[in-house]
Specification:
The chain is of the alpha+beta class and 216 residues long. The protein has one domain (3-214): Aminopeptidase (3-Layer(aba) Sandwich). The chain is built from six helices and nine strands, in the order βαααββαβαβαββββ. Helix 1 (13-23) crosses helix 3.
Length: 216
Amino acid sequence: MHLVLSRVQEDDFDELLEVQFRAFAHLDMHTAIMGKNTLEMRALAKEKFVKDMREDPTDCWMKLVDTATGKIVSAAQWKIYSTWAPLASHGEFKADWFEGKEREAAEEMFTKFMTIRSGHMYGHSHVLLYILFTDPNFQRCGAGSIHVKWGTELADRLLVPCWVEGSPDGYHLYEENGFKDVQYVNEKFGDWLLEYTVMKRESKTQYEAGRSIVFT
């Protein structure tokens, strides 16, 4: 398999989101925040991602395409905060796709997740691996490592740390690429489990006396 890395374009999102929802089918957090895998929910996700791509200067989507089929195998969304500035408020999160206690649990989960993120990451320059997924039929093909290497090399060039909120399935990938544990989260919200590890990789490059020093 020959994979080519390139930027995601707006017309990629229909295909990309089909892969994303399949990849995260068993991850409670994705279902709670993004909804179930339906045409309607994928359309809502597309609307949000396209808006971010157009309006958020930190937003950067990358894709890996199998040259034999032309299909998207894997994708990653990065947030590149090369200079920190207070983030624009996106308003209160409302899980309108659920009702009753299910909706309440989804909204509580999102609030908890964002509180933890802001406590660790907000206020300083960094690169955040926002989303990473690979088609379930092509996992263990090295796609995740390609994305992570791209982002960590960028962070090194910017002289900033790289952060990720790693699911249990992705934990070892990040550990192998130099990320260290900062906080393990395991909490139930209704029937859903919020489980992940906040991980940080320090920049391997520092700038001193007019020259870059790389730490191996």
